[in-house]
Amino acid sequence: MTVFTDLVAGYRRFHEHGWVEQRDRWAELSQGQSPKVMVIACSDSRTDPATVFDVSPGEIFVVRNVSNLVPPFELGGGRHGVSAALEFAVTQLKVEEVVVMGHGSCGGVHASLTGRFTDAKPGEGGFIARWIDMLDEARDRIVAQYGTGDEAAHQLELETVRVSIANLRSFPCVREAEAEGRLALHGAWFSIRGGVLWVMGDDGEFAPAV
Question: For residue 1, what are the domain limits?
Fold first, then answer.
């Protein structure tokens, strides 16, 4: 099990090798960033976008949260971490593409299907329940069709991507940039077990990347 001391040891290896070997790159990045792609992914420790997409530092602007969800555009109530990151990426960094990447064996999806945190208090699962209630409508539809087994979980994992992309389009800055051809939205799903990335087409269906 990796602990903080292991992370520090890893940093030392990085500093002695990776940082030194790409010193020019790090010097360039110290002056600013200009990624072309934003990736919205799950916080799950098994699905690091930089690993899945094999990219170097500075190439993708990443936001990670439970079940790779984007909330709908809203002005009231609480903090808006995902919304702020999205706004920064689209209006300040001028990213040209936003990718929402779901994945297999998603704990947030499992919680949605099982209702594990329903009525839980904050600190005991209440924050999780409030976050994943964005999936309630899709979950009810999927449960009616597939039940609550493995296939339902897979279908709801795909729905996390579709729901998030629909919510992305509720943001005025996204709609404007997309309408003007300055921004493209993409969906993807990564199979942890199979190591295969599935890409969402214009029809909302997913197929393995070729």
Answer: 1-32
